[in-house]
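Long-time lurker, first post. I've been practising inverse folding by hand and with some scripts of my own, and I keep getting stuck on stretches where the structure tokens seem ambiguous. Below is the full token string for one chain I'm working on. Before anyone asks, I'm not after the true native sequence, just a reasonable design that respects the backbone. If someone could post their per-position residues I'd love to compare against what I wrote down in my notebook.
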């Protein structure tokens, strides 16, 4: 449990060493609505041979053991506080930092990237099925009676969690994993977001997968290549390390 300014955040940590030295690569992971930090894997560091690594996965306010109420506005302020505490205490002069988001977690990662002004040469993004949130909310509500009421929710959506706004201010190298058959965040919605993203992107189309589908060996090969590309552009020595 971490006290991040006014937010008490539950997070789970996986690290390659137990000493106090800063890692070579620090990954901050932000799961989607159905995700939980306690189920986090070692992706993406499992695809790299980096000596010192750490993965910190949070449960946002109202999820898991984190205090507070689940809301988009609370999520944004808590994410900024989480970023500040972890990077102040666990990042050294040679540490690279990756923000890794899944679905709704992508909006959190983009918010941090747009507002925290991280070092572009040492910071990267990994986004899976990033949603343009206003459009996704309307799409999700459309099958239901009185779906027009969702317009009130959309109107109240804070700019901090509007990825169509934040993406315009993020100039970081990014790997974007796209599920070809995503019904929650259709790929044309994702491409609309990527069209305004200010940084360099490398996309991986995961054929045959819905929103939360499991990747195959074929997908993993291309994902691995993209992770190597990201490390090449953000690693301390600008050099790729692979265990494959």
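-- Answer (accepted) --
I ran through it position by position. Result:
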């Amino acid at each position: 449990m971490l006290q991040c300014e006014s937010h008490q955040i539950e997070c789970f940590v996986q690290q390659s060493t137990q000493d106090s030295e800063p890692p070579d690569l620090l990954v901050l992971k932000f799961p989607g609505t159905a995700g939980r930090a306690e189920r986090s894997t070692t992706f993406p560091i499992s695809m790299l041979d980096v000596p010192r690594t750490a993965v910190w996965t949070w449960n946002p306010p109202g999820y898991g053991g984190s205090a507070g109420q689940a809301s988009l506005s609370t999520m944004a302020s808590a994410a900024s506080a989480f970023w500040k505490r972890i990077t102040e205490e666990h990042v050294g002069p040679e540490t690279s930092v990756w923000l890794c988001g899944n679905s709704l977690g992508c909006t959190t990662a983009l918010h941090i990237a747009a507002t925290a002004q991280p070092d572009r040469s040492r910071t990267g993004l990994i986004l899976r099925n990033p949603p343009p949130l206003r459009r996704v909310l309307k799409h999700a509500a459309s099958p239901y009676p009185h779906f027009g009421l969702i317009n009130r929710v959309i109107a109240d959506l804070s700019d901090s969690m509007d990825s169509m706004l934040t993406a315009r201010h993020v100039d970081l190298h990014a790997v974007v994993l796209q599920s070809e058959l995503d019904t929650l965040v259709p790929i044309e919605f994702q491409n609309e977001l990527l069209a305004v993203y200010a940084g360099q992107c490398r996309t991986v189309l995961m054929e045959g997968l819905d929103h939360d589908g499991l990747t195959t060996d074929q997908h993993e090969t291309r994902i691995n290549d993209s992770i190597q590309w990201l490390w090449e552009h953000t690693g301390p020595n600008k050099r790729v390390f692979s265990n494959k």
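A couple of notes from the structure itself: DSSP finds seven helices and eight strands in the chain. The domain at 2-234 is CATH 3.40.50.1820 (Rossmann fold). Happy to go over any region you disagree with.
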